[in-house]
Specification:
Pfam families: Lactamase_B_2 (PF12706)
Structural class: alpha/beta
Number of strands: 14
Order of helices and strands: EEEEHHEHEEEEEHEHEHEE
Number of domains: 1
CATH superfamily: Ribonuclease Z/Hydroxyacylglutathione hydrolase-like
Low-confidence stretches: none
GO molecular function, one term: hydrolase activity
Largest sheet: 7 strands, mixed
Strand order of the largest sheet: 6-5-4-3-2-1-14
Keywords: Hydrolase
Radius of gyration: 16 Å
Oligomer: single chain
Mean pLDDT: 97
Protein name: Metal-dependent hydrolase
Organism: Mucilaginibacter rubeus
């Protein structure tokens, strides 16, 4: 599966002929200053929760591309009130079949509020089944045994986990999470953007290798096959 990394927790995959974008936070990320959000392709935008570092560029990219925005009901309502017409709700436990495949939402252990401080419901992650491969993006979360439910629903080609610690899982727990969802390939996200989530990338890769897993840490703007 082709994956494009845009910094922080923002990435896209191409599946079923569609560009599927996750948690666009680009214009506010100094590390992603060379990324032009007006050039990003998206047919779908999945939003894991309402924090600004996951939702900042949703409206702009949705308006640019007419992508369908998918999120829990509170995200659906919030984005709809911003004038975006193509929005679909998907709460934890629910699943929806789109033209690229099927998406199922899973709970994430994390706080949630919108940039204006209003209630944003709960945080979540998504597992996607497609003809081109299957993936799980946990969103911002701590390690939770609920992740075992992902492996019961889908056989994964890879998973996407936060590894920056402090606000989410760190490397150690992300390794345990990979075991719970039965994924031997992991894209690491949510690290280095802010001072308190900086990591030693070489050490992180080494720890995953020692656990028999492969950690991908592409550069911002880089495309990889995973």
């Amino acid at each position: 599966m082709k994956l494009n990394y845009y910094g922080h927790s923002c990435f896209s995959v191409v599946a079923g002929g569609k560009h599927i974008l996750f948690d666009p936070f680009i214009s506010g990320n100094e590390l992603a200053k060379d990324i032009n959000i007006d050039e990003i392709k998206a047919d779908y935008i999945f939003v894991s929760h309402g924090h600004y570092d996951h939702i900042l560029d949703v409206v702009t990219i949705a308006n640019n591309t007419n992508a369908m925005v998918v999120g829990i009901y509170e995200v659906y309502d919030y984005i709809s009130k911003k004038g975006v017409k193509n929005v679909h709700p998907l709460n934890p436990g629910g699943k929806v079949t789109f033209d690229f495949g099927t998406a199922k939402s899973f709970i994430a252990q994390h706080s949630a509020s919108f940039p204006d401080g209003s209630y944003a419901g709960v945080a979540c992650g998504y597992a996607l089944k497609t003809d081109d491969g299957n993936l799980y993006y946990s969103g911002d979360t701590g390690l939770t045994l609920d992740m075992e439910l992902v492996a019961k629903w889908v056989d994964l080609d890879f998973a996407v986990f936060p590894i920056g610690d402090v606000l989410t899982m760190g490397v150690d727990d992300a390794i345990e999470a990979a075991k719970l969802v039965k994924a031997d390939k992991v894209l690491g996200v949510h690290y280095d953007t802010f001072g308190f989530i900086k990591i030693d990338k070489d050490e992180a890769v080494k720890q995953f290798e020692q656990a028999g897993l492969k950690l991908f840490l592409p550069g911002i703007g880089e495309s990889i096959d995973i």
